[in-house]
Amino acid sequence: METPSLDAFLGDVTTLPRRKKKTLKLLREAYTYGVPGIITKSMTDRLAFSGQYAFHIGTPDPEMRRLASWMLTVEPNRKRIARLIPKIWKRHGREDLKLVGLLLANMSDEELEEDGWTILLQLIQDKIAVEAFLEISEEFVRGGRTIPDDSWIIDASKQSKTWFQLMILILSIDESRCSNHQELIKKAPQGGELFERIRNRLVERIS
């Protein structure tokens, strides 16, 4: 029997529920559409654990983009979507983080009533997987956002160890900017294996 598509599921929903809990439940169900049958629960459980996510379903990119586009289409009140973003992030499923990245990347600062990069950092009060942050940051760039300027990066790096490391990851997206931040890159707090591989690559570039 053919598995129902995400479009078929969303076709029955003409507006976002008024209650945030119902919206979160709706999104959680939407994530299950389009997931390849070869992805086993044991695999997604391991991915969730390794990335410190509440869950990791394995929803493909096309479905995630379709879901974000649907939200922005079905809900004309951008302020309402902006208010939903912290709730979606707080649940902290892998798909939740990706959806937030897509929404932030495709909403203007005026709609968000704040700079998108600033909102992203404010959401990250603790750790975030390197892969997840890079994916969101690259989505920002694809969506037309520019990498923050040097003073913003320096100021953010002073706020916490986590933010300091995140600034190095942002710089890794545009390595031409790294020559302006040699000391920042070298002095950033030590991170995990992937972070250190990225940092070492940048150090080699600027040496």
**General shape:** elongated
Low-confidence runs (pLDDT<50, min 5 residues)? none
Domains, number: 2
Number of strands: 0
Question: How does the helix and strand content classify structurally?
Answer: mainly alpha
Major sheet details: none
Helical element count?
13
Give the averaged pLDDT, no decimals: 90
Which strand-content bin applies to the residues?
Answer: under 5%
Structural description of this entry:
Helix 4 crosses helix 6. This protein has 207 residues and is mostly helical. The longest helix has 14 residues, at 61-74. 64% of the residues lie in helices and 0% in strands.
Give the helix/strand layout.
Layout: H1 6-11, H2 20-30, H3 41-50, H4 61-74, H5 78-91, H6 94-105, H7 109-112, H8 116-123, H9 130-142, H10 150-157, H11 161-173, H12 182-187, H13 193-206
Helix pairs in contact: 4-6, 5-6, 6-9, 9-11, 10-11, 11-13
